[in-house]
Amino acid sequence: MDNLFNLEKFSDLVTSYAPRVVGAILTLIIGFWIIGMIVGAIKKMMKKNGVDETIQPFLGSLVSVGLKIMLLLSVAGMFGIETTSFVAIFGALAFAIGMALQGSLGHFASGVLILIFKPYRVGDLVEIGGGQTGTVKAVQVFNTILATLDNKRIIVPNGVVTSNVITNISGEGEIGVELTYGIGYGDDIDKAREIILAVGKRCPHILDNPSQGVVVAELGDSSVNLATRPFVKSENYWDAYFYMQENVKKEFDKAGVGIPYPTMDVNVVSNK
User: Fold this and answer.
1) pLDDT tens, 140-151?
2) Domains within the chain, CATH numbers bracketed
């Protein structure tokens, strides 16, 4: 009699839960298939829109994990399991992790924005992070890595980058090299201008268009300051800068054009 009773209970249990189990299995199979399609579509969209390849797998995994958690909670609800407590636990856990890693998460969010909107790319000469200047070597999720002219490696957190002005020095492909040369008040302005233009013509990095010009920028306390802005390819900025600085000085020396420097007259008063 007891065996018959237990068999009936087991039969009722199977009859009651079998549809739920079958439904749960079908929901999981169909759900995982749909999630795969959604993640695949998102990856294709990111690739089509030029989202950086560094972040594509990460965002795809993030969407996939989120959707799978939602699917598993839905399946648990099909068996009558109270999912509200699970949601509360996940929410509290996410909040605790967010508070513990709020700085890192801020850098991560900034890194995502940089990778999506691309204010600069690898190889660009930039000024970021409140004054750090260098060539971009890598744009990572949390940091941007720069190489300075003297080959120092600077790691700038992306949160610092997006909270400051970003100057992409080489962003347009061509850049003007700002140069100023001081000559004495007794020197010939036209001769100095000819020398600067001639050196610019010889420089292999300076472009013909736009043409180089030289103007009187300032009548200083001890010098007449001549300014010029020759244009070069972004990658040739420093080569052109140093070429002009050295060779203009040499040509000024040959032509007798003086470059003044501050002097001080000291008057000694003798009290006898």
Assistant:
1) 778 888 988 788
2) 2-100 (1.10.287.1260), 119-168 (2.30.30.60), 174-255 (3.30.70.100)
